[in-house]
Amino acid sequence: MIEVNNLSKYFGEKRVLHNISTCFEQGKVNLIIGRSGSGKTVLVKNLIGLLTPDEGEILYSGRNYHTLSHNEKKELRKEMGMVFQGSALFDSMTIEENVMFPLNVLTKQSQEKKLARTNFCLARVDLAGSNRLYPNELSGGMKKRAAIARAMSCNPMYLFCDEPNSGLDPKTSLLIDQLLTEITHELNMTTVINSHDLNSVITIGENIVFIYEGNLAWTGTKEQVLGTDNHLLNDFIYAQPLTQKIRKNIEL
Question: How far apart are the first and last CA of the chain?
């Protein structure tokens, strides 16, 4: 679980996050949603330690990241996995080398154990046998699955995803959503996804945090999001195109 207490962030004199307090729950898919420029990416960067809050605190299972020692922060980072918007695979490495990269950097496991874990992760995302391929030989959806395999290679407690469905067709997006949900439940991770995709919100949003102009404007679940009377959230939701499958769910 990740707790955020009274978090604010400034860039110069501009406050981009305003006294945010919320919780990202363990074993659930937590979504941060909002329009471009709302502050959701800044919030995620604070969560993963790329930015330091100017006010407030972030607790990882009770541990305040910004009061930890250097070695304690290193240990906590080993518990984090990250799926980047553009997958961020190393083009000069094979898929096997990409997935094994965190294991090489963060663990002292034998080569045999690292390879076994790599093969397990590739099989789990339905990429078994792709070890010797390079990223430019994969489709967009396969690259995202390889990125997920790399993120889960060290068996993280916390998984962060930045727009994991960006650039994907609706069918592939649904498959990625399903995969992220499955591994979140299997590994009992705290998964935090930065997204503006309403189809993901309705499909996998077990805990949803809506940010509007740097403020926490609403929290709830996928079952509650369509019935809210929050006009800011409604403006955000109904301004977006929906897949046919999601439209049928809404009509029901």
Answer: 33
